[in-house]
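User: Second chain of the day. Same drill as before.
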Amino acid sequence: MPITTDEVERVDLRELFRRLRGRRAPTRTTAGTNRGYLTVRVNLQERRLVLEEAKIRLHTTTPHLGGERWWAQCPRCDRRIAILYRLPWASGFACRTCHGLVHRSAVAGPVERARLRYLRAREALGDRQPLLGGPLPPKPPDMHWSTWDRLTQRLKEAELQYRNAFAGAARGPVVADR
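Assistant: Same format as last time:
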């Protein structure tokens, strides 16, 4: 079974650049990973990021509505990437492709994919501890009612898909409550 991106250390550069927005001077900061924090030196003028002594080139693109989007260049294959990964037995960071990693949903079965879809729908509503069939969290005050209605409908559909996937073909599909 292939190793998934959730099982290895990763640095999401999008979050790092969000925090550095507006700064141009060389900066020493920390980059959050799924395993802790790393010290990072960023020099946006020279378009360079130093991550544990590995120098990583940076690039920018201009989104359609303006602004600036920062990307890293994979040190191994020169692809433009937003997330760097490091395997425990490998030296240095590289992109998902170079390490041969896959996303969890690519190796998950139908029940697991339905469960992940359900959990994402609960989290979109602001639920931090989602339970199957649990009560809905209160509507966040800054969310429009039309958004809340759309997200709750998506949650109902995801819960039904999860129940159907879990029930399996042996028992037949679960009928939605009216």
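The radius of gyration is 21 Å.

User: Great, on to the next one.
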